[in-house]
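Hi V.,

Quick status before I head out on leave. The structure for the redesign project is tokenized and pasted below; the design run finished overnight.
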């Protein structure tokens, strides 16, 4: 599978929802497969909170496969013999896009906390400019899970005529007070580390690694389901099984969290985690509208919503509210609730049940939709 890594320099002003302006910016992205002559086989993949544009394959300099490698490639559900898959890093994220780590053109130094706050809508506006930059006039489908699912819904509201199929996985139309609280604690863990230095740690030789470790360990307790954690670790002790009766880590789960926390600051920029978390806290698709269905009124494609019965962060009944709003707007929509013990992270860690659903949705012709009445052929 051919993997192309790029960073697009967008020399077009972007007005943010906060009222501030980015006169130019960069978006990092990867592509897989080839855009066909008709230009109708592009699929935009939107990533989640802690991921980035590296969704598939093992390009040079990348020791690990992409976060959805199981889904993307020849013969896989996002079949690159049929589809041209674009995985875009979000504005404000870690991975090469313009963010708090970028140089502020006014000072020549990293923005740090002077970087403007970004919303999910801002991310989508930037992605639309990226699509225009790449010459993609229309997407066959836009797919995303978690924060990526937020982006798919913003695409439906902001650019309803630019794609035909919307797939929203493990998401909600507005974050709950519970999610706002969880993301606030992650932010506080980072900001309470003295090495955070009010966000100006770039070039100082010190990073808030302890705070990032605590935030990451806390995130594991959010994303890993209780049953999975119990099955994997239970209350087993680490090492020889002898209790030491102290406060040093004694249990397998404690050692696992310690390993996850170690080096977490090297995997994602701490300020990016803060900015993306804040963007998620602001997300409420219904806010500008009289009712949620009004947000989808302009979309003329089809939608598939996927939830998981063990996802307590964005439960199935919240996804059903989106489904009912789509149906009320006259959009052909289906809501599939899959069974998994992996909770919110099931679309990444338990892909087997999602695979046939995703493949069928991308390939199935849709009667009554002019752009979706044929199956895209495989490339020669």
């Amino acid at each position: 599978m051919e993997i192309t890594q790029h960073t697009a320099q967008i020399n077009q002003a972007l007005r943010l929802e906060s009222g501030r302006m980015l006169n130019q910016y960069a978006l990092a992205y990867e592509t897989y497969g080839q855009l066909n002559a008709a230009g109708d086989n592009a699929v935009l993949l939107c990533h989640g909170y802690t991921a980035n544009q590296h969704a598939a394959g093992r390009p040079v300099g990348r020791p690990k496969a992409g976060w959805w490698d199981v889904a993307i490639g020849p013969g896989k559900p996002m079949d690159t013999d049929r589809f041209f898959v674009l995985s875009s890093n979000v504005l404000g994220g870690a991975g090469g896009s313009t963010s708090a780590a970028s140089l502020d053109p006014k000072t020549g130094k990293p923005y740090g906390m002077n970087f403007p706050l970004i919303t999910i809508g801002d991310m989508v506006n930037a992605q639309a400019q990226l699509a225009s930059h790449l010459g993609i006039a229309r997407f066959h489908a836009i797919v995303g899970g978690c924060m990526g699912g937020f982006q798919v819904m913003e695409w439906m509201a902001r650019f309803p005529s630019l794609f035909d199929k919307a797939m929203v996985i493990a998401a909600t139309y507005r974050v709950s007070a519970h999610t706002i609280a969880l993301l606030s604690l992650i932010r506080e863990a980072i900001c309470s580390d003295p090495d955070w230095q009010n966000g100006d740690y770039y070039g100082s030789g010190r990073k808030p690694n302890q705070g990032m470790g605590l935030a990451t360990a806390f995130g594991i307790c959010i994303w890993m389901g209780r049953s999975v954690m119990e099955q994997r670790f239970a209350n087993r002790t680490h090492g020889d099984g002898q209790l030491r009766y102290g406060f040093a880590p004694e249990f397998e789960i404690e050692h696992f969290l310690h390993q996850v926390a170690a080096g977490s600051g090297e995997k994602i920029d701490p300020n990016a985690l803060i900015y993306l978390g804040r963007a998620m806290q602001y997300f409420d698709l219904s806010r500008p509208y009289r009712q949620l269905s009004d947000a989808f009124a302009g979309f003329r494609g089809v939608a598939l919503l996927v939830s998981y019965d063990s996802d307590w962060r964005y439960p199935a009944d919240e996804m059903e509210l989106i489904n009912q709003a789509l149906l009320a707007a006259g959009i052909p929509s289906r809501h599939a609730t899959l069974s998994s013990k992996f909770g919110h992270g099931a679309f990444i860690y338990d892909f087997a049940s999602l695979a046939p659903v995703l493949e069928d949705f991308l390939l199935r012709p849709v009667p009554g939709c002019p752009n979706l009445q044929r199956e895209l052929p495989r490339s020669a």
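Above is the designed sequence. The two ends are 14 Å apart (CA to CA).

G. will cover questions while I'm gone.

Best,
W.
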